[in-house]
Every structure is written in structure tokens, then in C-alpha cells.
């Protein structure tokens, strides 16, 4: 017999009133619940007079088995035959006792009293989500089409409000969301009407009941938070210097203003008055932290500044959430939104009625129907009585509910209806800190309300707290407590993590020397160059993404635990042992990374068991199979057809697909495929004919066979199932294909048939990002690491737990993107879109609900983290990735000399919390026992005392590089060499030939096929010598090449000539000093835009420059540097006159491409044939007349004056000689006539130079 704590014994023994047992993780609540049931049976309460409600079928099975075992034990211990006989009777009742899920209980109620509601007793359960979703989609399509056919203008506007320019799916999503929320509540149609009623408003926001009942209390609480922050600043003010008393003046005025609002909260305080008062707030324009005169009070000023920022943030949020528009605008938008919402609710009601009618036609009921019908039966009135409710209240001696925190409002109503009022007989067990099923309409507020009410002696109910955790070591409990006492507070998490909520270590048998520290493993993506030596650069060339790095880090840590080996304490054997793979669980927030995790861990030799693997419909093998099914249904679909052809089933490459398309460019790909299959003497023809034969066979096969049989026939004919089994992650992929077969089989058990319907259904599921089948990987009883979601781990425990991807972003898409946001407590939030003006107007209710919904979502994420951490029995490891550790420490630094346990508000704002890491790291950095490894930057936060042992280790890329393993096989030492046989020699020769193969065009792979003129101009400086000095392709070339390599810059060793002077991106050109390159570019643009027929003087050039500046083609500061006089001087030269001579033809800024022999640029001894090199450039211009072709190029280079001018000019001419030679060759090829003159004009010295 286990020894129970006083609190556990109270939960077993107390009766006569409602009891709420708040059972923390590992507190033995199931054991207590079973013991209570057994004690009641031993005291004469028959099992069939107890209603025991569990959350899942698995929990029901476990509960029955525990009760059976306990009854068997009681029979063995009974001392007289009468007692044994009574216990055996209870064993006989066990199978029929009301120990079940609430759904199963509802079914029994309906089966017993169906006639009261005129129900057909021959209904079936609509348990398959596939059929349910299809019926919903079909029903909605019918309702929608009826409105479209009737040309319902209100419906058209509704579709525009919630849809987009491509589809009305947004409206369907809104209707389905309203349905799911309404159906989880008693009287769903009334709830829908109340949603609309909340938007009713006339002349004042204050007259709106919703504002008074819902918004105003929360608003006043938020104002109180601002006031508290203001009071804190005033209290801290004496610790710093307040020059001229300005700070005291500001904050005193604000405090008085806030006090006047708070003191008047019990009076009628209208919205307009609140807005007016809050707009009078004033803040200091500037607060100096660091200055010489404040040097002695720097820590105090930093702390004050931090709290001042909190104060400003709270005030800013208050204004943006409640007072973001004038009252008149808010009233108008709310009135318009009310009209839209009324139409939406009316359409939703139509859908509900049509959906119910369709299910009635199919004689099918789903789980929601069971609950709604049970509620109707319990509320059924006959002759002024409620006979069904009275029957169950009389039948049940007690109603016991497990996981009470996860029930929805309708389930709560049912439980209240079957339990007694006075004295209460409802026994509820749960832990609100583990309420993580909000997406299923679970409402933890029911638990929280009783948790607070039963604390008072004025209420007859009793609250019992089971705080002892008999599962985990002390450090797990201390770590959990240390974290959540800093972040879990009623202002965000709806619950205070106070003394009552904290975990108490109940497991006292763990050895003291057991290593149980909580580890946070973080991969830092910041550049690792400073952390590595030059020798590491080659290794670090292939960088890891965050996703890859997390998984590698996870695998390496698991291997480290196994290699040490880490010691596990076996509590049954009462001794330590080496860790095994099955001791480890990896908990993930979503299944998104599961396939990658499985692949990487298996690559590292770590076995994995996955219960629900990954995004099923998104995997490659399933996508290929779905594409195949699509073309079997209709082959004239290009994308699915090409998908199959390019897959291992079709086994075609890009060139094959190009050949197919080339045979018929006018029609779809299927017609092209048929034509390509008739090409004579083509090796591709046979493969295409085989594929078409297979496709025709499968199209014929599907006529006489089921979809499941068709899927299996594809596997058999193509071998695709075997193929994917040999790929990385093959076991997972093969299981996915098996799951597709099972999905197809279960689909055809529904009321829907046909391949087209099946494909359409899957497309809808993909569009909604839903997975209806999940394949397990591995065997549950093998020695393997277990991989599962945090939700899937609830109720389980493991010696070692990795919480993976703690930087995964919370899913808040419904708050940010959904056009209607639903909240069980506050209703529906919608904006109004003026379809005429195409303007979206927010509403006060919508803003409020989105804020509350976001806060509730963060609270649930916090509870999800609590569940994850408390799964660990002995060791907890949290794995994530960060960008920069130093910045993170600075951001999360907490300076608080008073050591307030709760984190500052600015670190707990729902709008700032995006992931688990942001929740936990600020708290962990305050641990006095914290050890930080892998980085020199330590925490600068004020430290809190704790016995929890935390370690944060920061990793970079070099830490994850796997060193090559060199081993010596002792079996080969001293081994005798065995002579090779003829076959072995032939095989060895073949292998040597393949491994020693040298590509005959090796130098071609090391040279570019394209060069710009600016990169290659140096090669053509000598007009008489076309051949270049050859460039080496690699450092490991010939001796001549190695010698040449020392004479060239490093960039010339890549097989391409490059220009070191790259143009800077625009974000780097915002500098005060204008460069010569910018001036040159602007001058060329000006010369390009000059109108040659005009008189070119300073006035015209000034106008042109201003026009280009206004068009933002030239920056003003660059335009000011253009030498307009030099341009005027250019047009006074003979070349300038030639440009303006109307008898000449002038072309400016001429682009060209030129093919040159690559051997002229690069040394390519292995190329016997000429290989072409494409050269591209733009020449400034040329002039053509009957006698001459004149090529010209302007240069803005600085030449200078004086004695050095001649030398500088000669240097520049030599520099640009090659460029003009290239232009000359290109121009000659273009015009098919020789260039007679080549000119360079240097604007700096107004000098024309002929080459």
C-alpha cells in the first residue's frame, strides 16, 4: 500500500461537497483518483453509481485496469466471504460501469432517451474526419451557391469583406470558425446572437454594454499597471539627480492624473473622459544616463531608465489599444461592423441548419452532435420537470472528472447538469498549469474560477492542492519553479505561480551525486571567423542553417550522453545504470522538423521512434503519388504529369523533358508526350512508350477497382514503395506510403466515392494545412530515442528530456491575419472594410479581442512549456538557436536592486514574447548558480538566490564540425596478402579506370565563358599583339603557371579576369564625400542626354543637370561636382563639331557583344579546338560619315597640371589603349568596315588624344 501525503489522503476521504483537486505534475493524481473510487466501493457505493469521466480512451483503459487490479487486491485481502462476494460483484460491474470519456457517456444518454427528441436510433458515428470535412465542404458549397444564384447583394459584400480578389475561401474559414466555437457551447444559436448584440451601439461607446462589462474592467486594470509603474518611478527618483526638479514635476502630474481615474472607477467614467485625461500625459523629452556629473549614480540611472521605458511602453500600448481613433470614428466603424457581423451570423446559422440536415439525411452524428443532443436531453422539460436530468442526478452518487482543466463550456454544462447542487457531489481533478488544448475549445477559466472561489470559506466547495512531484529530481522541480515564478502571473498567464502552485519534491530516493543540472544548448549564428583559426576556413566553407545546426547539436549531445555514459538511477532496482536510447525523449513544438530530425539522427547512428512523424501531405513521396493519382484521373494536367515524369517513377531528366516539349509546343504536355513516344530511332521512345502503357493500364484498372487497390497497384507496378525505402529516412517514407494506402481504404468506407472526390478532398486538406494520417517510425518497444510533440507527451515521463527548437516562433497567425478572431470569453472581433473607398477601419471590440486572444495564446504557450519541462524525471535539456549571444544578454539584462521575483513588465508583454526562449532566458540569466560556457559574455542581471542548477552553453559552427574518424582494424595487422583472381584483377582495373578518369576539357571548367570589357581591357593594351600573357588557372599548375601566380593578384587565379573596383550597393553610398567614380558616371549620363542639335552652353547644361537631378537620376551633391565648362569645351573641339554636324550619323552609349577565342585569354593546352569567350561592353559612341568611322570615349580621370601632366597622361592612355582596341574590333564587326580614328577625350585638361 502506498503511503499518502495528508493532502492526498484528504482528496481520498473528503465528501459531502464539491471538491477541486489541483494536482501538479507527477503528484500521483490518477493513483489518488483510483484510491478514492476503491474506498467508495469498500464503503458500499456500487461502481455503476459512479460517473468517472476521463479525457481520452487510453486514459479510460488505464483507469479500468487500475481499478480492476485494486479490486483484485482487495478481494485477496478480504477476511470474510461476504466481503469477497461484494467485491466480486463490483468486478462484474466494472465492464459496464460509467468509466469513459464524456463522449461515450453522451452516447449512452442518447441511446437511452433518443425518443424524447424523435431521433432515429439507427444513427452511425461520423468519426472519420475525412468524411466529416467533406460533408462540411459540400454543405457550405451548397449554401454559398444558393446565395450567389439569388444574387444576394449582402452576401456579395460579405464575400468581399472576408475573401480576397482570388477566392471567397476567407468567408468559408470565418463561417467554419464561428461554427466550431458555437457548437462547443450550450445554445450555440444564442451565443451567435450575443456576438452580434455586443456590437450594438448608438451615440456613445460608454452606453455599449459590452464596453462596460468586458472592455472597461480590463482597461482600468491596464491603467492601474501604468499607475504602478509611475509610482515606482517616483519612489526611485530620490536615488538619482533630478536637475531642476523636472522629473518630479512630470511624474507627479501623471500620478495625480492616474489617481483621479482610478479613484473614480466605481463611478460612471465615460470613454470620452478617459480619452481626454489620458491624452494629458507628459513625459520628459530626454533622460541622460551617462554623463560625467552622473558617474557615481550610473547603475541607479540605468535602472531608472529601464523602468522609464516600461512606463512609456505601457502608456503607448494603452493608447494604441483603446484610444487609437476619435470616438465618433469608432462608433461609426462599430455600427458598420455590426451590420457585417449580422450577415455573417445569419449565413453561419444557415450553414449549421444545412449541415445538421445533411447529417440527418445520412443518419450520422459526430461528437459535437452527441454533446449537443445530450445537453438538449438533460434540459428537456415535460410536465414542468426535467426527467433526464433528474434520472442521472438520482443515479450518480458522485461524478468524478479527470483533466478537468481541458473541458469546454458545453462539457462543463453537461457535468453540472448530471451532478447535484446541494450537497455538491462533483469531484474534479486537474492542473490548470497543464491546460494546453485551447485549439479544441478547452476553457481553463472554469478551473480557475473554482480555484479562486473554493479558496474562500464562504463557498461550500473545497480546494485541495497536491504540490508534491513524485516523478522528478529536486533540480527539475527547482528549475521549473525558478523559471515560472518569474513569468507566470495573473496579468499574463491568468494564474499566479505562487507558493500553492510551486512544485515540491516528493521523490526522496534519488542519489545526491546524480548529475541533474538543467542545460540550455544554444547555437549562435553570428560570424564564427573570430572564433576560428585560418586553418578552419576550409572546413567552415559550407555553413549550417539554423535548422540544420539545431539538429546536429541535438544529435551530438545525445551521442555525448551515450558515450560518457550518463548515469540513470533505476528507482525500481534502486541502483544506477548506463543511459540507453529509450531513456531519452525529444519534445518538439510542431511536427514540421520531424523528417529532418529522423534523417540526421539516423545518419549519426541514433535510432528513433516517432509516433506522429511530420507534415504528411507535404512529403515528397506523397506529393509524387498524389500527382500520379491526378494524371490517372486526367492526364492532361501539365504540372502533375511533369512531376511524375521527373520523379523516380518516370526517371526522366531535364533534357528528356525538353525533347518532349520540342515535339509539340502548341498543345499540353500530355499531347507532346504522345508525339514524342512515336519518334523513330530515339532511345527515349521506348521509355516513353512504357510509361504511357503503364498509365493506360492504371486508368483502365481504376474503373473496376477501389482507390486503395489502385494505390497498391502503383506500388507493385513501379516499385516506388521499395525505392523510397532505400532513401535517407527510408523507413519514414515507406510508412508514409503505407499510410496513404490506409487513408484511401478508410476514405472509401465513408459516403463519398471516386478518385476525383478523393483528389479534391486531399487538395482541400493541403490548402488548410491539415494532416489526416500520420505514420509511425520504428517500434515502440525498441531501444530508440522517442520523438513526439509536447502535446503528445502530456501524461508521460522520461528520464532525460530534450525540449527542441525553443526559438520556434509562436503561431499567432489567427491574431495577425484572420479577418475574424474568436475568443470563448469575449466573443468575435472583426474590422470593417469600406468597399467603396477600399479602406479598413478597426473597431474597439476587435482591437480588444485581438489583445485578449493574444494574451490567452501566450498564456497557453507558457503552460505548454511547463508541460514540456515537467516530463523530465532526471535531466532536462533545452535546445535552440540564436543570432547573437552578446546582444541577447544585453536585451534581457535585469537591473533591480530590490530583487523583485517577477520579471519586469517589458520582458513579459504578450506583444514581445515570440518563443519559449524569450520566456525563459531572461529568468535563467538571473540564476545565481548559472554557469555560462562557450562565450566570454556573462550575465549582468541582478541575481536571484536559487538552488536550481542551470548551465547555458553557446555553440558555433566549428563546434558542430564532425572530425574525421581514423581507426585501425586490429584484425588486419599482420594479415597475409591473398593473390587476386582474374576476376578481381579485372574489377580492380575497372575501378582504377573510373577513379583515375580525367575530364578531357579540364581547363574549360576552370575558365569563365563571359567577360566584361572593364575586366579584360588590360589584355588588349598592345594593338599589335592580340595574344595575352597566359593566366594560370589554379595554383597547382605547371611551373610556369606557379611562377606567374606570384605576379598576379589573388582574384586572377580563378579562371576569370575580374575588376577589383566593384560598384558599391546603394545603402553604402550614402556618404558625405562624393567619389570620382560617382562624378564620372554622372558626367557620362549628362553627355549621353545632351541634345546635339542645340547650342551647348552653360545655361543649357545647367538646365539639363537640374532636370536629371529632379528625375532622381543624379544625386544633388554629385550634380554639383560636374564640370559643365569642361563639357562646353569638349563641344568646341573638332570631335565635338563632328558630333553636332548634321551630315554625320552619331550613336552614343552603344552596347555590344563580341566572341573571342578563349585561348587568346587563358592558357588552355588541352583544348585542340577554338573555344569562344563572350565579351560584353558599352562604348561611349562613334561617328560615321562617307569617309570615316570615328570611335570616341570620354574620360573624367584626374590628370593634373604641371611637370607631371605628360607622364600621367601617358599612363592613362596606356591604361585605356586595350579598351579602345576591343571597342574597335567590336565596331568593325558591327559595321563591316574599318575604324579610321580612335579618340580619348580627357575632360580634366580639355585634351583630345588620338590613338
Automatic annotation (TrEMBL):
PROSITE patterns the record matches: UVRD_HELICASE_ATP_BIND, UVRD_HELICASE_CTER
Pfam family, one: UvrD-helicase
Catalyzed reaction equations: ATP + H2O = ADP + phosphate + H(+); Couples ATP hydrolysis with the unwinding of duplex DNA by translocating in the 3'-5' direction
Keywords carried by this UniProt record: ATP-binding, Coiled coil, DNA damage, DNA repair, DNA-binding, Exonuclease, Helicase, Hydrolase, Isomerase, Nuclease, Nucleotide-binding
Sample GO molecular function, one term: ATP hydrolysis activity
CDD domains noted in UniProt: DEXQc_UvrD
GO biological process entries: double-strand break repair via homologous recombination
Record NCBIfam families: addA_Gpos (TIGR02785)
Role according to the record: The heterodimer acts as both an ATP-dependent DNA helicase and an ATP-dependent, dual-direction single-stranded exonuclease. Recognizes the chi site generating a DNA molecule suitable for the initiation of homologous recombination. The AddA nuclease domain is required for chi fragment generation; this subunit has the helicase and 3' -> 5' nuclease activities.
Oligomeric form and interacting partners: Heterodimer of AddA and AddB/RexB.
Name listed for the protein in its UniProt record: ATP-dependent helicase/nuclease subunit A
Organism: Lapidilactobacillus dextrinicus DSM 20335
Gene, per the UniProt record: addA
Amino acid at each position: 500500500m502506498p503511503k499518502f501525503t495528508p493532502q492526498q489522503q484528504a482528496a481520498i476521504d473528503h465528501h459531502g461537497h464539491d471538491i477541486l483537486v489541483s494536482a501538479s505534475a507527477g503528484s500521483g493524481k490518477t493513483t489518488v483518483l483510483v484510491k478514492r473510487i476503491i474506498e467508495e466501493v469498500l464503503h458500499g457505493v456500487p461502481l455503476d453509481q459512479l460517473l468517472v469521466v476521463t479525457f481520452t480512451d487510453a486514459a479510460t483503459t488505464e483507469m479500468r485496469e487500475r481499478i480492476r487490479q485494486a479490486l483484485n487486491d482487495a478481494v485477496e485481502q478480504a477476511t470474510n466471504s461476504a466481503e469477497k462476494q461484494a467485491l466480486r460483484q463490483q468486478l462484474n460491474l466494472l465492464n459496464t460501469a460509467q468509466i469513459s470519456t464524456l463522449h461515450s457517456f453522451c452516447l449512452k444518454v442518447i441511446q437511452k432517451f433518443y425518443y424524447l427528441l424523435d431521433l432515429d436510433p439507427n444513427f452511425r458515428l461520423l468519426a472519420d474526419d475525412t468524411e466529416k470535412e467533406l460533408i462540411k465542404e459540400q454543405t457550405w458549397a451548397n449554401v454559398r451557391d444558393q446565395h450567389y444564384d439569388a444574387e444576394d447583394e449582402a452576401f456579395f459584400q460579405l464575400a468581399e469583406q472576408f475573401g480576397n480578389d482570388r477566392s471567397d475561401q476567407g468567408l468559408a474559414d470565418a463561417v467554419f470558425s464561428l461554427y466550431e466555437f458555437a457548437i462547443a457551447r450550450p445554445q450555440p444559436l444564442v451565443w451567435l446572437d450575443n456576438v452580434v448584440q455586443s456590437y450594438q451601439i448608438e451615440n456613445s461607446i460608454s452606453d455599449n454594454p459590452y464596453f462596460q462589462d468586458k472592455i472597461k474592467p480590463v482597461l482600468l486594470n491596464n491603467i492601474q499597471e501604468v499607475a504602478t509603474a509611475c509610482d515606482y518611478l517616483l519612489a526611485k527618483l530620490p536615488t538619482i539627480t533630478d536637475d531642476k526638479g523636472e522629473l518630479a514635476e512630470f511624474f507627479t502630474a501623471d500620478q495625480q492624473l492616474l489617481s483621479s481615474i482610478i479613484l473614480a472607477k466605481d463611478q460612471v467614467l465615460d470613454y470620452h473622459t478617459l480619452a481626454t485625461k489620458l491624452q494629458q500625459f507628459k513625459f520628459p523629452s530626454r533622460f541622460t544616463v551617462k554623463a560625467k556629473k552622473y558617474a557615481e549614480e550610473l547603475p541607479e540611472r540605468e535602472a531608472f531608465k529601464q523602468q522609464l521605458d516600461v512606463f512609456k511602453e505601457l502608456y503607448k500600448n494603452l493608447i494604441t489599444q483603446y484610444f487609437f481613433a476619435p470616438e465618433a470614428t469608432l462608433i461609426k466603424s462599430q455600427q458598420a461592423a455590426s451590420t457585417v457581423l449580422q450577415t455573417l451570423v445569419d449565413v453561419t446559422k444557415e450553414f449549421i441548419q444545412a449541415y445538421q440536415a445533411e447529417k440527418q439525411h445520412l443518419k450520422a452524428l459526430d461528437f459535437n452532435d452527441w454533446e449537443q443532443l445530450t445537453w438538449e436531453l438533460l434540459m428537456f422539460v415535460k410536465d414542468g420537470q426535467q426527467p433526464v436530468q433528474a434520472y442521472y442526478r438520482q443515479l450518480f452518487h458522485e461524478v468524478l472528472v479527470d483533466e478537468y482543466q481541458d473541458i469546454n463550456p458545453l462539457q462543463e454544462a453537461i457535468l453540472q447538469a448530471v451532478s447535484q447542487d446541494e450537497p455538491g457531489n462533483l469531484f474534479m481533478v486537474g492542473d490548470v498549469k497543464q491546460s494546453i488544448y485551447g485549439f479544441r475549445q478547452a476553457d481553463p477559466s472554469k478551473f480557475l474560477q473554482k480555484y479562486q472561489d473554493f479558496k474562500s470559506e464562504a463557498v461550500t466547495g473545497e480546494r485541495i492542492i497536491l504540490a508534491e512531484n513524485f516523478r522528478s529530481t529536486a533540480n527539475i522541480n527547482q528549475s521549473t519553479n525558478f523559471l515560472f515564478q518569474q513569468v507566470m502571473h495573473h496579468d499574463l498567464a491568468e494564474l499566479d505561480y505562487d507558493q500553492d502552485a510551486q512544485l515540491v519534491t516528493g521523490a526522496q530516493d534519488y542519489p545526491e551525486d546524480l548529475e541533474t543540472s538543467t542545460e540550455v544548448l544554444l547555437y549562435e549564428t553570428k560570424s564564427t571567423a573570430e572564433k576560428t583559426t585560418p586553418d578552419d576556413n576550409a572546413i567552415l566553407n559550407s555553413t549550417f542553417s539554423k535548422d540544420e545546426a539545431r539538429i546536429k547539436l541535438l544529435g551530438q549531445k545525445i551521442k555525448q550522453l551515450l558515450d560518457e555514459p550518463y548515469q540513470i538511477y533505476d528507482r525500481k532496482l534502486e541502483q544506477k545504470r548506463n543511459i540507453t536510447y529509450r531513456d531519452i525523449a525529444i519534445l518538439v513544438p510542431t511536427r514540421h522538423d520531424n523528417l529532418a530530425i529522423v534523417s540526421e539522427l539516423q545518419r549519426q547512428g541514433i535510432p528513433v521512434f516517432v509516433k506522429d512523424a511530420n507534415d504528411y501531405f507535404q512529403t515528397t513521396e506523397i506529393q509524387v503519388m498524389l500527382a500520379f493519382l491526378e494524371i490517372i484521373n486526367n492526364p492532361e494536367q501539365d504540372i502533375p504529369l511533369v512531376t511524375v515524369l521527373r520523379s523516380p517513377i518516370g526517371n526522366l531528366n531535364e533534357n528528356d523533358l525538353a525533347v518532349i516539349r520540342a515535339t509539340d509546343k502548341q498543345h499540353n504536355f500530355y499531347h507532346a508526350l504522345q508525339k514524342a513516344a512515336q519518334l523513330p530511332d530515339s532511345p527515349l521512345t521506348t521509355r516513353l512508350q512504357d510509361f504511357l502503357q503503364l498509365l493506360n493500364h492504371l486508368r483502365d484498372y481504376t474503373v473496376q477497382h477501389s482507390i486503395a487497390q489502385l494505390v497498391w497497384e502503383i506500388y507493385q507496378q513501379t516499385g516506388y514503395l521499395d525505392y523510397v525505402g532505400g532513401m535517407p529516412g527510408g523507413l519514414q517514407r515507406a510508412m508514409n506510403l503505407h499510410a496513404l494506402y490506409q487513408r484511401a481504404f478508410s476514405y472509401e468506407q465513408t459516403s463519398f466515392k471516386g478518385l476525383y472526390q478523393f483528389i479534391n478532398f486531399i487538395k482541400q486538406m493541403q490548402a488548410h494545412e491539415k494532416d489526416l494520417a500520420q505514420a509511425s517510425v520504428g517500434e515502440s518497444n525498441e531501444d530508440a530515442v522517442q520523438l513526439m510533440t509536447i502535446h503528445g507527451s502530456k501524461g508521460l515521463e522520461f528520464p532525460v528530456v530534450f525540449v527542441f527548437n525553443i526559438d520556434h516562433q509562436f503561431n499567432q497567425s489567427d491574431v495577425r491575419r484572420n479577418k475574424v478572431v474568436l475568443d470563448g470569453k469575449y466573443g468575435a472581433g472583426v474590422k470593417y472594410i469600406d468597399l467603396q473607398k477600399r479602406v479598413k477601419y478597426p473597431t474597439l471590440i476587435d482591437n480588444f479581442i485581438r489583445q485578449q486572444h493574444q494574451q490567452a495564446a501566450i498564456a497557453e504557450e507558457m503552460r505548454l512549456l511547463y508541460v514540456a519541462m515537467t516530463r523530465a524525471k532526471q535531466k532536462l535539456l533545452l535546445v535552440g538557436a540564436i543570432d547573437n549571444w552578446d546582444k541577447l544578454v544585453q536585451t534581457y539584462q535585469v537591473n533591480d536592486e530590490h530583487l523583485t521575483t517577477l520579471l519586469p513588465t517589458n520582458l513579459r508583454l504578450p506583444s514581445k514574447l515570440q518563443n519559449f526562449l524569450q520566456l525563459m532566458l531572461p529568468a535563467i540569466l538571473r540564476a545565481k548558480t548559472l554557469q555560462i560556457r562557450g562565450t566570454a559574455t556573462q550575465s549582468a542581471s541582478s541575481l536571484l538566490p536559487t538552488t536550481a542548477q542551470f548551465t547555458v552553453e553557446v555553440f558555433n559552427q566549428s563546434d558542430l564540425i564532425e572530425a574525421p574518424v581514423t581507426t585501425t582494424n586490429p584484425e588486419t595487422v599482420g594479415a597475409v596478402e591473398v593473390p587476386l583472381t582474374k576476376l578481381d584483377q579485372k574489377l580492380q582495373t575497372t575501378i582504377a579506370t573510373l577513379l583515375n578518369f580525367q575530364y578531357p576539357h579540364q581547363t574549360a571548367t576552370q575558365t569563365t565563358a563571359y567577360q566584361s570589357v572593364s575586366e579584360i581591357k588590360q589584355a588588349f593594351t598592345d594593338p599589335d599583339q592580340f595574344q595575352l600573357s597566359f593566366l594560370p588557372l589554379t595554383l597547382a599548375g605547371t611551373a610556369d603557371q606557379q611562377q606567374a601566380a606570384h605576379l598576379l593578384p589573388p582574384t586572377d587565379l580563378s579562371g576569370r579576369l575580374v575588376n577589383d573596383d566593384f560598384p558599391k550597393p546603394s545603402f553604402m553610398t550614402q556618404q558625405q564625400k562624393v567619389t570620382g567614380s560617382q562624378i564620372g558616371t554622372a558626367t557620362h549620363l549628362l553627355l549621353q542626354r545632351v541634345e546635339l542639335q542645340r547650342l551647348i552652353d552653360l545655361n543649357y547644361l545647367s538646365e539639363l543637370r537640374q532636370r536629371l537631378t529632379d528625375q532622381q537620376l543624379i544625386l544633388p551633391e554629385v550634380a554639383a561636382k560636374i564640370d559643365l565648362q569642361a563639357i562646353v569645351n569638349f563641344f568646341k573641339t573638332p570631335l565635338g563639331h563632328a558630333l553636332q554636324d548634321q551630315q554625320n550619323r552619331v550613336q552614343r552609349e552603344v552596347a555590344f557583344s563580341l566572341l573571342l577565342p578563349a585561348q587568346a585569354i587563358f592558357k588552355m593546352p588541352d583544348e585542340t579546338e577554338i573555344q569562344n569567350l563572350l565579351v560584353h561592353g558599352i562604348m561611349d559612341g562613334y561617328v560615321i560619315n562617307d569617309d570615316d568611322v570615328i570611335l570616341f570615349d570620354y574620360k573624367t580621370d584626374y590628370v593634373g597640371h604641371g611637370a607631371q601632366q605628360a607622364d600621367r597622361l601617358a599612363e592613362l592612355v596606356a591604361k585605356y589603349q586595350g579598351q579602345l582596341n576591343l571597342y574597335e574590333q567590336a565596331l568593325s564587326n558591327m559595321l563591316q568596315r574599318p575604324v579610321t580614328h580612335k579618340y580619348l577625350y580627357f575632360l580634366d585638361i580639355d585634351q583630345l588624344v588620338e590613338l
